[in-house]
Amino acid sequence: MSQPLLRVEGLSKAYGALKVTQNVSLDVDEGQLHAIIGPNGAGKTTLIAQLSGQLRPDSGTVVYAGEDVTRLDMASRVQKGLARSFQITTLLAGFTALENVALAVQARAGSSFRFFRPAATEQALNDEAMQYLADVGLAGREGRVAGSLSHGEKRQLEMAVALATQPRLLLLDEPLAGTGHEEAAQLIALFDTLKSRVTMVLIEHDMNAVFALADRVSVLVYGQIVASGTPAEVRADAKVRAAYLGEEEVSDALG
Ligand SMILES: Nc1ncnc2c1ncn2[C@@H]1O[C@H](COP(=O)(O)OP(=O)(O)OP(=O)(O)O)[C@@H](O)[C@H]1O
Asked: Are residues 118 and 133 both part of a single domain?
C-alpha cells in the first residue's frame, strides 16, 4: 500500500496536568477529506495547531509526504504544501479581495517573478489571484474591500488565500462557524469541488456537513481518538454516540 500523505504517530501535548492530546495516531490518505469531530473542548483545535506547526507536541511525530516535519515551524510547513486555512482576522480588511489573494500569491512565489518587469509582475500576480477567486466563487467581487464582504464571502476569500499557497494538504478549523444556512450550503459545495484537488483535514461541528463531505472521520474525546472510520462506521459506533449524549443536534445527525 502507498504511504498516507499525513501520518501522525503517538502525538501528546499537556498543559500542566491537563492532557489535551493523548497519544493520537492518525493517517490521512492523499485525495481524501478526513474530518475530526468531537465534543467541545475535546482538543481538536490543539491537534490542528500541532499539525500546522503552530504548537509543538510534547512527544510523537508528524510525518508529511514521507518527511518528519515535527520540528518544522509553520512557515516551513506551508512552503511544503501543508497549510492551515487563514482565519478571517488575518484577511486585510482595508484591501480588496484581489489584493488579499495577490499578496498571498506573491508570498508563495517569492522571487520567481523576478525576471518580469514590475508591470508584468503585477499582471501575472493578479491573473493568478483572479483564478483562485473564480475557483471559490468570488469572480466579480475582486474589487470589493475585504471588510465589506459578507461573512460567507470572507470565508470564501479565506479559501482563495489558502489556495494561493498551493497546498497539498489543507487544515480547516471550523470553516462553517458563524455562517447562515445558505452560506454554509455554498461553502459545503465549494469544499466538495476542492476535494479532487487538495487533501483536507476538517474540524467541524456541523455534522450534516461532516457526513456529506468526509471520506473518513476520526472522533476525538478528551484528547484521545476513540473511533476512526468511514462516516457510516463512525455513525454506528457506540462510543461516539455515548460521547455526544445530551447533544441533541448531533445525536439527530448521527441518525
Ligand atoms: N494554551 C492553553 N493553556 C491551557 N489550556 C488550554 C490551552 N489551549 C487549550 N486549552 C485547553 O485544552 C482543551 C482542548 O481545547 P481545544 O480548543 O483544542 O478543544 P476543541 O475540541 O477545539 O474545542 P471546541 O470544539 O470548543 O473548539 C480545553 O480544555 C482547553 O481549555
From this structure: yes
